[in-house]
Known about the structure:
The longest helix has about 35 residues, at about 180-215. This protein starts with a helix and ends with a helix. The chain is mostly helical. It has 15 helices and no strands.
Amino acid sequence: MWEKTVDWLIYDQAGLDAASRLGHAVHFFIYDTVKIAFLLVAIIFLITLVRTWFDTEKIRLWLHGKPAWLGYLMAAVFGIITPFCSCSAIPLFIGFLQARIPIGVTFAFLISAPMNNEVAIGLLLILFGWQATLVFVALGLIVAIAGGYLMDRLRAERWLLVDIQPLGALKRFERHEPLTQRAKEAWSHTTDLFKKIMPYVLIGVGIGAWIHGFVPGDLVARYAGAENPFAVPLAVLMGVPMYANAIGVVPMIEALVAKGMLLGTALAFMMAVATLSLPEAMILKRVLSLKLIAIFFGIVAAGIILTGYVMNLIF
């Protein structure tokens, strides 16, 4: 229904040629902008409403003292339900360290939070189906857990730049608000987050529309298709200098896949943009040594590249 409305608006009312590159680009931009905006509001609101029944401070306290493997798993899963980009996840990462949670567990969260963003997962589900989304989430969790394990094995705490003191007793919150109050808070959070995310979406959709309309499909297929065995690491290298929320990259991924880029290569690019950013490195430099930052980026980059190749083999 919405696609027919966009067709009528662009081709019948605006008079753009349906076969032209400009027509394709404008159609992609309007169609995806409205679709993603609607999905953003719906997904953020529902997840935020559900999250009002969970106390993140209690979750953090519960993680302390648990077996290492369970800590890695829970921290990685916790990263899925926290809508953070790589930079905004750092304060909670430091809070984990202050709570004396093992450093490997804290890194498992830092890797998972931006990589397995729940809103991006919802968009991937709509665009690429449940099989691809399920494999993507599973591989993202494996990368986060493996990264946390390696950080513990390397005794990465010796490369911290600050002596982080443990927090005092955590205040426990018992919430008894009615559903209407929770829904009001969830809507307020949704509108605030939507305003922050939407500029990234517009930029991402704009780039995606340009790719969709003006970039030749054979060009993408030649350099980032199945014929290039180095397409995945190249996509990761291209993604690192960029900084964006994974949500804003999804429209670009959609356009690149439509042009012939393999799904695993496109998702590797998205993960690199969301998880390994230069602004993140600058913020982490306040608490981590350059050596530890380099190790962290190296482990995550290797995991992302492996994930990209596995996704290409499966899909």
